[in-house]
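Quick review question:
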């Protein structure tokens, strides 16, 4: 009774659906459906029955790949060793067009998943069905080819990629900020340890048994932060100087007599703070732990910064650059925002005048602080307060000058990246990527060029200037160059990877540290209220907020 009912239903479907594709499926050699899409109204049990009967209709040794019954036609093509791509149509269909549709289906499935693994086909079933829907609509073939199908199924969004780049840069900046805080805590701990040793040697051991010696009354601890102003944000240096003074180990402890009172170990509290910061840094790490040797090489190439000796007047120049270039070399977006800030910690220099030297060849938009004498800046290039009786705030950064550069000229990009992926006849993609420093006055340190890779692919590197590592967690190849300057203004990386899509190697993301500004500006000198020269310290940073080839 059930067989008669199914036969009647099938005859009704054929009568209502002339010259249409009924279903497209991926099944095993025994007829078990792994992924199937019906294009006419048909119950699941019926399509499973049709696929189960399909292997029984095949004639061993036949050359053609079609099987027919009284009402329907099966077109099939082997994919892998244990599976078939099957197209179920009416007998009135154009068999030549259906064969072309079947070949496109098989190629699409091979692009989406591993055709040698049935489990992978099941896991990627939704992606396979979406591809079938793009090829066939309501039983009729759409005018699509494999290239267009890839573009549709990938659904790439340039805006989404840009947002991902911005998020990655935010994570990187947060990680650098945590490192800076950890370094600051470590420096404070060492200073406290040095002071404690010095006082112990002069005053002997205190009665409380504190590691800070007899110079403290009752073993009390006075925080270092209450004595010194908040440190100003600092930036990495390309060549840290080595000190001949032996440093005190982080685990070193002073001599203690008796049992230490509870809560008296101020250094232990500070160490706990450093450990907490380090744990946060570890949680935010984006480098695959399996690439430990390469990561250690990258950390050696990344510049570190020695403690800066800030003077009574400190000048801070900070720029943020956004540069987005398309893969054809056209400039999509370029913007540089910078500011010059003063940090005055000595009240005697609260009313200083800053002389600057600029060369506005980039047509920058420059603005001064409302309390700065703009007329004097425009005529004499001197930053000074309008009111001579007023003074700058103490112990806090105050921005006195800002500039903004927007360009549509490809020649203004400080570091150009050319990525050339090309398909080879052996089923691999050969990638050649090169960089060129177009602004010789800049010196870029700790440069990392991140190139996306196909998931699970292992690149074969034939030539590289610098070092590289493969981040398997994010499927990227990290090309690391310690320094790019006038003496090392260009370099290249050549590698090959299995694949057939040359568009998978974008966007290419670049990060670096630079201690020279993009905008030509320099502090020529600083004078006090009595026009005497003032000694000052200075740090400069050019920070890439977004630097990519899309």
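Suggested answer, residue by residue:
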């Amino acid at each position: 009774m059930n067989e008669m009912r199914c036969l009647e239903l099938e005859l009704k479907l054929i009568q209502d659906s002339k010259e249409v594709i009924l279903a497209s499926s991926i099944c095993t050699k025994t007829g078990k459906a792994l992924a199937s899409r019906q294009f006419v109204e048909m119950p699941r049990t019926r399509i499973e029955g049709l696929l189960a009967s399909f292997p029984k209709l095949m004639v061993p040794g036949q050359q053609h790949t079609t099987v027919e019954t009284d009402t329907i036609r099966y077109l099939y093509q082997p994919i892998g060793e244990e599976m078939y791509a099957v197209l179920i149509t009416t007998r009135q269909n154009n068999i030549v067009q259906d064969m072309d549709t079947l070949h496109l289906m098989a190629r699409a499935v091979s692009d989406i998943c591993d055709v040698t693994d049935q489990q992978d086909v099941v896991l990627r079933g939704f992606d396979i069905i979406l591809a079938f829907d793009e090829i066939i609509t309501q039983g009729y073939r759409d005018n699509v080819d494999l290239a267009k199908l890839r573009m549709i199924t990938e659904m790439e969004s340039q805006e989404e990629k840009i947002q991902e780049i911005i998020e990655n840069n935010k994570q990187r900046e947060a990680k650098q900020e945590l490192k800076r805080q950890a370094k600051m805590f470590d420096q404070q701990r060492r200073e406290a340890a040095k002071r404690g040793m010095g006082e112990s040697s002069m005053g002997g051991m205190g009665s409380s048994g504190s590691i800070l010696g007899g110079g403290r009354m009752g073993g009390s601890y006075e925080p270092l932060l209450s004595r010194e102003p908040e440190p100003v944000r600092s930036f990495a240096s390309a060549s840290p100087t080595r000190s001949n003074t032996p440093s005190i180990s982080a685990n070193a402890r002073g001599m203690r007599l008796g049992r230490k009172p509870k809560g008296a170990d101020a250094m232990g509290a500070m160490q706990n703070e450093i450990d907490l910061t380090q744990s946060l840094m570890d949680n935010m790490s984006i480098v695959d732990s399996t690439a430990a040797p390469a990561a250690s090489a990258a950390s050696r190439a990344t510049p570190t910064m020695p403690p800066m000796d800030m003077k009574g007047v400190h000048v801070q120049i900070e720029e943020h650059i956004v540069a987005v270039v398309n893969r054809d070399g056209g400039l999509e977006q370029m913007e540089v925002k910078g500011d010059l800030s003063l940090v005055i910690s000595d009240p005697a220099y609260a009313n200083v005048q800053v002389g600057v030297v600029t060369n506005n060849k980039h047509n920058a938009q420059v603005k001064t602080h409302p309390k700065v004498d703009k007329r004097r800046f425009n005529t004499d290039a001197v930053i000074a307060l309008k009111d001579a009786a007023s003074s700058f705030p103490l112990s806090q950064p105050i921005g006195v000058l800002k500039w903004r550069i927007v360009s549509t000229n490809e020649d203004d990009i400080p570091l150009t990246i050319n990525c050339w992926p090309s398909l080879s006849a052996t089923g691999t993609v050969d990638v050649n990527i090169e960089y060129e420093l177009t602004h010789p006055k800049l010196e870029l340190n700790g440069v990392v060029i991140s190139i996306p890779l196909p998931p699970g692919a292992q690149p074969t590197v034939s030539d590289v200037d610098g070092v590289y590592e493969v981040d398997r967690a994010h499927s990227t190849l990290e090309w690391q160059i310690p320094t790019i300057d006038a003496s090392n203004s260009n370099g290249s990386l050549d590698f090959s990877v299995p694949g057939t899509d040359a568009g998978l190697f974008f966007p290419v993301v670049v990060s670096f540290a630079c201690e020279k500004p993009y905008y030509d500006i320099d502090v020529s000198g600083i004078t006090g209220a009595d026009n005497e020269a003032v000694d000052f310290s200075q740090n400069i940073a050019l920070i890439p907020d977004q630097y990519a080839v899309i």
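Why it works: Confidence is low (pLDDT under 50) at residues 198-266, 283-306. The first helix runs from residue 2 to 16.
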